[in-house]
Amino acid sequence: MAAYKPVVVQACPKLGEKITQDTLYWRGYKTPVQIKEFGAVNKIDFSPVPPYNYAVTASSRIHIYGRYSQEPIKTFSRFRDAAYCATYRDDGRLLAAGSEGGSISLFDVSGKAPLRQFEGQTKPVHLVGFLSDKYRIFSGGDDYSSKLWDIPSATEIISYSEHTDYVRCGCASKVNADVFITGSYDHTVKLFDARTKSSVMTIEHGHPVESVLLFPSGGLLVSAGGRYVKVWDVLKGGQLLVSLKNHHKTVTCLCLNSSGQRLLSGSLDRHVKIYSTTSYKVVHSFNYATSILSLALSPEDETIVVGMTNGVLNVKHRKPEEKNENSQKKRQPAYRTYVKGRSYMPKQEDFCVSKPVKRVLRKYDKLLRSFQSSKALDAVLEPPIMLHTPEVTVAVMQELHRRGTLRSALAGRDEKQVNLLLTFVARRVIEPRFTPVLVIVADMITDIYQPVVGQSAIVDKQFLKLQQAIGKEIDYQEELLEVLGMMDTLFATFTKKRDTCLEESKSNGVTEIIETNRNY
């Protein structure tokens, strides 16, 4: 008697994620820490100096967190209404923030009360930042104006009213202490020079601008608005270099890593996309629970902090790299110990003893070997197998059909078992790898249980689902055939045009040769 051959399960290749150096690097961040704030987190800003604390603006408070602390180490709460866009100065000693009432507050990080109050804007201030000389502040608000302030005297230096809608974002140049940029809901990005009375450059983004970012060199500008992230060359008068459309909803925030080689964008579609600044292709992506409003990366790229609309702060830290150069590793056996005797060839006078390999059969194989068809089918209809390895269930069905016992295995089942069978068939019959087998199974189930249709509402519902699934697939196939017919017609037309052009060029060439000969 021949030995039993186990059921062969056809393995289909899975399209996995391509593993790159960027994938390994960004996966190196540990499981996030969740911190609940009092409201939606509208701004996160890291201190540029060690120990790299970060300020979180949410509701009417500004919380200062340590890198690894889950509780705020300091709180600024002297705001009558909502606070916006708390931003550190380059030395990490001062913090400026806007408010719903239109005032701008300047705080000393080591104190509690505001050092200065800047009054002058009539509506909420959503943009506050420091110029690189550290002695001036620029701001933008919902009154459509952008202003420049002097810190020592707390007075207004100059005001610009060129935007025609809310001013919601901006940044300062690190190369030139007089240059700052603002973005507005009027779809424009404007570059201002404090030495002039009007903007020196206007860039049309095409959508309400939510965030702007200037590269450290000052030559490239990134703007985000709508679903687009656009990169502009400032030195060429605001020429568009690339337009990225990788998000499904509005992009709300931008961020650069410390080297400037990776650009991060957060969106209301719950994703953070990471781009290479050389090719501007997405190299990695993070997925979050809810829509993202703010994003920040620590100066040493050790921490990613994301603020969301539900008030949750998501903090990820990089796993520390273990470098124990001084620790002595336990000595392992030499490689030759493992391979000793493997390459030995037996001689003619040697007596070889072969050790039989024990074959472990799975439950369904054991049942098939003992010709228990119905029980073998029951074994592969268990939920873990049907959900995670449906190819095993289909392989057993195919084997039963080959043996001619599939009909008897499907017959004689109660309402619960028929419901399970129909659920699996209706879900998987449209998959091309399973269709040939499951169409036969569906046909047999219909023949066997047709007399009992109408006796069980559950079974009737599953039959209707199966009918709908097959009907949708047939309609889809018909549409595909129509598209293929259209494409064939187009390709045929292109081929005819090309042949006609070639014939004309050949005839023209012959005519030219004849005319040349006549001239001679």
From TrEMBL:
Residues 344-490 form the U3 small nucleolar RNA-associated protein 15 C-terminal domain. SUPFAM superfamilies: WD40 repeat-like. One of its GO terms (biological process) is rRNA processing. Keywords: Nucleus, Repeat, rRNA processing, WD repeat. It holds the Pfam family WD40. InterPro entries: U3_snoRNA-assocProt_15_C, WD40/YVTN_repeat-like_dom_sf, WD40_repeat_CS, WD40_repeat_dom_sf, WD40_rpt. One of its GO terms (cellular component) is nucleolus. CDD domains: WD40 (cd00200). PANTHER family: U3 SMALL NUCLEOLAR RNA-ASSOCIATED PROTEIN 15 HOMOLOG, UTP15 U3 SMALL NUCLEOLAR RNA-ASSOCIATED PROTEIN 15 FAMILY MEMBER. This is U3 small nucleolar RNA-associated protein 15 homolog. The gene is Utp15.
